[in-house]
Amino acid sequence: MNDWHPTTVADVLPAAEGLTELVLDIGGTPLVGTHRTPGQYVRLALPEVGESLFAIASPPEPFGTRWEFLLKGGSALVDALVRLKPGARVQSRRPEGRGFPLVHARGGNVLLFATGSGISPIRSVIESIRQERSAYGRVTLYFGARTPLAFAYEDELQHWESAGIRVVRTVSQPGASGWQGLTGYVQEHLGEEQVEETVAFVCGQSSMVQGVIDVLRTRGLPREAIHLNY
User: What b/e string do you get for 195-216 counting C-beta neighbours within 10 Å, with b at 16 or more?
Assistant: First the structure.
């Protein structure tokens, strides 16, 4: 069985400071229907450049033919991927990882934590929740970025809030940007957030992940109710 399948670049779009959105068309390949859990990731490759894992930013769709990714610049593979034009081929494998067990959150409240490009798999969770919003209680996203220009999916935040998903944004290095919102790390802004009957999904740098876990545990949320996608 061939583990690699040729997929086609459908679009390459600027997403935020240092971030690019890559859309792959998987139509006509055995990959259709293999993305089953939000938070899963896919190994992408370009011949002569290399391969790496990338979280899928779009929600699982049984018959969907497009996978969306959020790429952070800085590696040879990413730099090559973001230079591709529509129609170019990218080798892709089946999704890996357990993802986020959204089924455990049904009927309860959901806390989402993401920083930087870590919003990619969390977006997959959000879009999955939007498709069946009444199945969940309160949903809050704590979203951190280094600078105000580094928030991906800026144009989607209003849609999320319209679906009853509270969005709390914070910037760790506002500098002279004129940013008027919250500053600091996401785990510093929980406020009076209640954690009873709550499940948390977290993605970001390891120090942020550990910081969020520590704060949630202090609040009384059991470790088994806090999920990472790896």
Answer: beebbbbbbbeeebbebbbebb
For the stretch 64-82, pLDDT in tens is: 999 999 999 989 999 999 9
Cite the beta strand spans of 73-137 per DSSP E.
Answer: 89-92, 109-115
Nearest CA among 212, 211, 204 for reference residue 116: 204
User: Which 3-state string (H, E, C) describes 161-192?
Assistant: HHCCEEEEEEECCCCCCCCCCEECCHHHHCCC
Work out the angle at residue 123's Cα, subtended by the Cα atoms of residues 76 and 132, and round it to the nearest 5 degrees: 150
Return the bridge partners of 89, or none. Answer: 8
Q: Please report, as a single letter, which amino acid is at residue 161.
A: E
All residue ranges of the chain with pLDDT < 50 are 1
pTM greater than the 0.70 cutoff = yes
Question: Going from the N-terminus, what domains does the chain have, and what CATH number goes with each?
Answer: 5-92 (2.40.30.10), 102-227 (3.40.50.80)
